[in-house]
Amino acid sequence: MNRALRIVLRAGSLLFALLALAVYGFFFSERPPNQTDPETLQGDGSALNYCDLAALKGDGLLAQDIAKGNTPGCRYDRFPAPILAACTEPLVPDAVDMRGLWQGVDGAHVGHVERIEQCGARVVVTSSGLIHDSGPNSTGGLTTNDTEGAVMFMLGDREYCPRTSAEMVWNQGVLDFHVFGWGPVVVRRYLENDQLVWEYADGTTTRMTRICRLPEDQKVPKARGPRIRLL
Description:
Layout: H1 2-28, H2 38-42, E1 100-107, E2 113-119, E3 122-127, E4 130-134, E5 146-147, E6 153-155, E7 158-160, E8 163-164, E9 166-171, E10 174-179, E11 185-192, E12 195-200, E13 205-211, E14 228-229
């Protein structure tokens, strides 16, 4: 009985340690310095016509010449200017051109709006307060390193939010998001006729259509999830 109890206690201690490590990594691990060009964050991405796409002729900057985009803090407070505005590197052979502004019209996230930028092997998804930037850049790794765009709790005046990291990989026309860059696929995006399909790991699917202008109610990101003040 004592031996069985010791095994249970050790297993419980190990589980607690793993849970504590996960919580630390999810909320408290140190974020990398935000390398996003300040002019990008201060710019007004809501004033652009996203049906007017630039030609990727290779006469401008390469993806690797432009600083990585990071979500500022837990979320941006205004829709930023495009990260890859100056990049004209042609898309890599396996990539499908999904560039533009998309809005959910059917499925789990009707009304959801996201901007997709592409250049070379790089893809940037901007939506709901967050910036997912994956691929070659001048300041950081290939994987995204940002948040879920939501403040989960506060300690004093400091906000804490869930961390995320993923690498976007093209797989026969499908853009797969691999968690941490080496983990399983958690998100898939692909074109189907004139719609962009977004599949999430929880089994939900959202179908989006292209729009030219950011809707007025999307200029400032809406709060996502509960906000709990601990102190």
